[in-house]
UniProtKB/TrEMBL annotation, chains A, B:
<keyword id="KW-0460">Magnesium</keyword>
<dbReference type="InterPro" id="IPR036702">
    <property type="entry name" value="ComB-like_sf"/>
</dbReference>
<protein>
    <recommendedName>
        <fullName>Probable 2-phosphosulfolactate phosphatase</fullName>
        <ecNumber>3.1.3.71</ecNumber>
    </recommendedName>
</protein>
<dbReference type="InterPro" id="IPR005238">
    <property type="entry name" value="ComB-like"/>
</dbReference>
<keyword id="KW-0378">Hydrolase</keyword>
<comment type="similarity">
    <text>Belongs to the ComB family.</text>
</comment>
<dbReference type="Pfam" id="PF04029">
    <property type="entry name" value="2-ph_phosp"/>
</dbReference>
Length: 238, 238
């Protein structure tokens, strides 16, 4: 098969891509898909991504853990926020978590409506993910969740890392792959410093999540690949 | 004034930007905005961008020159195609030209509907354009025409060249500025070679327009800045 890999830089461009037979990798590095990867790897039974804090309420009486933040603080009455440090085995093993994430949820729902399969990527599971993608006989779309439908640096950097690992196994690629890979090659020796160039590095600093950012850039500490089945992200058998 | 510069990577994202008080620079390097810049610089009275070859027909009895191509060939009955070499002073001085360009026209019309002012940029007028932009007290949006609403390499490279010239004069910028500028800095010593990495370099080769591509990457051979007034691109007084 003459396989294609492409990068969709924001969910607002997803309608331009034929994904009916493709695997879509949703990327929301700070912090949704990193926390999801870590949580599933640590034995969470399932993670349900929702767009708004209010959407969590529908799950309030099901015994699920509820995760929601506003302005970097855990919302009163919720179990924890969006930091990957909340997703340790001690906290999530065997549990189902409802996670509030605006950009990531939008990307997952849009992709799920049309794609052959939707999985979740992050630096934490880069090698596990790319090894699995290589072995599938499918086209791949790397979908950056972005920020309010706009392009962002960290999601595109990760897309570039995936392209860099897969390029030899795919025949066709698009211009966004070229740029994402070149960005990644430029930045890979010090991803954190490169992200300081971002227009929202100031916003991140205000959220006081520097430890989270550092953690979300760790390579290959997880083997799990979360896959979206219905409304739930669960561990892919691979 | 605390000025903002942003890069909109494709017209499909333009709705995300507030441009009511901004100058929008439309970028369609291969070849629309390069040919337009060269034609206006060579004394064309006006250039009217239209989206379809058929749209030219509405202007057939006005004594305008009609420019249209299909698959790299001048359409039968038309005066010339989209090559910048058709826009020499001998051919266009004092004339009005109707130019068919799908991606460029779409970008210009979308921007024109909302922006404070719409101008045209290309490597041919980079310094004239950026010198003028510096002197305006306005925010700037660099609008890449892209390819069928998708991201492309050459338009983003040029956006990066503009960012590189203007960065010191603007306070706010977005992540697309960061990436466009870094791409440009990586590629600037040999833009042509970098563009060979493009997914459509094969398509360009088939069109047999290598001379056009080389020409469209020439720096600063024009002083003119085309500005959109109504449906016509004319020479900006600067």
């Amino acid at each position: 098969m003459s396989r294609t890999i492409e990068v969709c830089l924001t969910p607002a461009l997803l309608h331009l891509y034929d994904i009916e037979k493709s695997i879509v990798v949703v990327i929301d590095i700070l912090r949704a898909t990193s926390s999801i990867t870590y949580g599933i790897d640590n034995g969470a039974e399932a993670i349900i991504p929702v767009a708004q804090v209010e959407d969590c309420l529908a799950y309030a009486d099901k015994g699920y853990l509820l995760a929601a933040e506003r302005n970097g603080e855990v919302v009163a009455g919720y179990d924890f926020g969006n930091s990957p440090f909340s997703y340790t085995a001690a906290k999530v093993a065997g549990k189902t978590i409802v996670l509030t994430t605006t950009n990531g949820t939008k990307a997952m729902h849009l992709a799920h409506a049309r794609a052959h399969q939707v999985v979740v990527g992050s630096f934490l599971n880069l090698t596990a993910l790319t090894t699995w993608l290589k072995a599938q006989d499918k086209d791949v779309l790397l979908l950056c969740a972005g920020w309010k439908d706009k392009f962002n640096l960290e999601d595109t950097l990760f897309a570039g890392a995936v392209v860099n690992k897969l390029r030899q196994d795919f025949v066709h690629f698009d211009d966004a792959c070229v740029v994402a890979e070149d960005m990644y090659l430029m930045a890979k020796d010090d991803l954190r410093t490169y992200l300081h160039k971002s227009s929202h590095s100031h916003r991140l600093a205000q959220l006081n999540i520097e430890d989270d950012v550092q953690f979300c850039l760790k390579l290959d500490i997880c083997q799990a690949i979360p896959v979206l089945i219905g409304e739930k992200l669960v561990k892919l058998d691979h």
